[in-house]
Design a protein that fits this description.
The protein is mostly beta strands and 260 residues long. The protein contains no helices and 20 strands. The chain is 0% helix and 52% strand. The strands form five sheets. It has a four-stranded antiparallel beta sheet, with no helix packed on it. 40% of the residues are buried.
């Protein structure tokens, strides 16, 4: 029995779902499932390793799964063409003195990855960051670089489609209040960060991981505005607000995009 915490899909040539969650016994579970709901394969993780976040790599072969720990770790799994899952010994222990992980990503090109990390309930201290984005090499599963975020509560991140920019979302508090979007230039092959930008999004509420999303062309960045029942549209270059989507939304916490 899954308490589902994450879902993902692999590339178009293999349409199946990846689900990660936990059992009633407290074990983590990863499953591949066909589009009509039939389970292909599952991997049961150790006690207490219920996945926090999951990312399917665009090479169509690897899956990154973030699990709790001190420090939290990113585990790498292999996915075969038929959907079967193979555990590997490759794992990366997060840096930055982190005690919590909010999101994990596989960068375009499947050479490096990134994680949004920090302390979930830090004591606010002016000028002291406690949320970070850090990169790692997928071949060696070793750390590359750590960058502080503006907010203190780690939420989520998304890469631009070309992998040249990473956008990270962090909150001042754990649930409601101000949040921030930071952008950094990114080298997807080397896993290094460059110059960045930041915008304060107030009063944007924070619920869950509060995920960001980009459209396929990389021209629009979407962020949930939980307190105001809308999605905010940002210009990826300036991080300026260019519009919003409201409709019948109530307390939106996450957003995904499909197609163009």
């Amino acid at each position: 029995s899954h308490a589902v915490s994450e879902m993902a899909t692999f590339p178009e040539d293999r349409i199946f779902l990846l689900m990660a969650g936990g059992t009633d016994a407290g074990q983590g579970v990863i499953s591949t499932i066909t589009a009509n709901g039939n389970e292909i394969d599952r991997v049961v993780l150790n006690q207490g390793l219920e996945p926090i976040a999951m990312a399917a790599c665009d090479d169509g072969q690897h899956l990154l799964v973030g699990v709790p720990g001190n420090p939290p770790e990113v585990h790498k799994f292999s996915i075969a063409n038929d959907g079967s899952i193979s555990a590997t010994t490759a794992r990366y222990a997060l840096q930055g003195g982190t005690t919590a992980m909010a999101d994990v990503l596989c960068a375009p090109g499947s050479t490096t990855g990134a994680a949004v990390v920090g302390a979930l309930q830090p004591t606010p201290r002016a000028g002291s960051a406690s949320a970070y984005v850090e990169s790692f090499d997928l071949g060696t599963m070793s750390g590359q670089q750590v960058e502080p975020l503006t907010g203190r509560h780690p939420l989520s991140a998304v890469f631009s489609p070309n992998g040249k920019t990473i956008f990270a979302h962090s909150g001042l508090n754990t649930r409601f209040g101000e949040s921030y979007v930071d952008s950094f230039a990114y080298d997807a092959a080397q896993g290094t960060f460059g110059s960045g930008n930041s915008v304060r999004m107030a009063p944007v509420g924070v619920e869950g991981r509060s995920t960001l999303a980009m459209n396929a062309s990389g021209s629009k960045l979407y962020a949930p505005d939980y307190n105001n029942d809308r999605l905010v549209i940002l210009d990826p270059g300036t991080l300026g607000v260019t519009g919003s989507i409201s409709g019948n939304l109530d307390f939106p916490a996450s957003v995904v995009t499909a197609g163009q």
